[in-house]
Amino acid sequence: MSSPDQRALLAGIEKEALVPLHTIHLQSDFSTDLSQLAPHLSPNSARYVLLKLAPGEPDGFAAVTYVPNAAPVREKMLFASTRLTLVRELGIERFRETLFATEAAELTAEGWAKHQKHSTQAAPLTQEEEGQAGLRDAEAQESGGTTARKGHVGSKLDAITTEDGLEEKLGELMKEGNEGLLVQLVSLPVSRTAFTRRRRRQWC
């Protein structure tokens, strides 16, 4: 691949050793040269495909692991488990792209364009990541940092106390002789909060 007239190198694994199989010469632009790969990609044999994306640049390579669905199971496992080792052995800094392909169509001009489009899009967030992002956005909207957030929460509690007498009921718990009282918060469909006072012996 160090030769300036080479576009791609296809390699396989024989007797647990990496073996070069075919060389694709650089003839035109990258998209056009991809068409030369088709005759060398079998629907039932795995291959490593090292592509030269940007000739002359130190990180101008792409490493493709082509493992078709019809390939033998042992071959699939062998290629999948050694793909990262291959890149590290050749120098991970040389490769600006890595791709795992299961269909020859992915290594055509159209397939590569889809890969490029997909790689430039933002990665989808998991449900947990979406929740964390929403929390950060909510915190960012509140001005004044921690102090302002405390004031915001306090105003909510004040509204509940004024409307439903929470302060008075909680105050009764502090009186002597009321150690057995229980205050239960119940959420009602009308979004109001009912406070019920019961003696613990009623639950027995």
Biggest sheet strand order reads: 2-1-3-4-5
Proportion in β-strands: 25-35%
Q: What is the CATH superfamily of the largest domain?
A: Severin
CATH class of the largest domain: Alpha Beta
Describe the structure.
- With 204 residues, the chain is an alpha+beta fold.
- The protein has two domains: 6-120, Severin (3-Layer(aba) Sandwich), CATH 3.40.20.10; 156-204, no CATH class.
- It has helices at 30-33, 73-90, 109-120, 127-141, 145-164, 166-173, and strands at residues 6-14, 17-25, 47-52, 61-66, 95-101, 181-187, 193-199.
- The chain has a five-stranded mixed sheet, covered by helices on one side. Strands 6-7 form a two-stranded antiparallel sheet.
Produce the secondary structure layout.
Layout: E1 6-14, E2 17-25, H1 30-33, E3 47-52, E4 61-66, H2 73-90, E5 95-101, H3 109-120, H4 127-141, H5 145-164, H6 166-173, E6 181-187, E7 193-199
Parallel strand pairs: 4-5
Antiparallel strand pairs: 1-2, 1-3, 3-4, 6-7
Quick take:
The protein has six helices and seven strands. With 204 residues, it is an alpha+beta fold.
Record keyword descriptors for this entry.
two-stranded antiparallel ribbon, Severin, disordered C terminus, 6 helices, 204 residues, alpha+beta
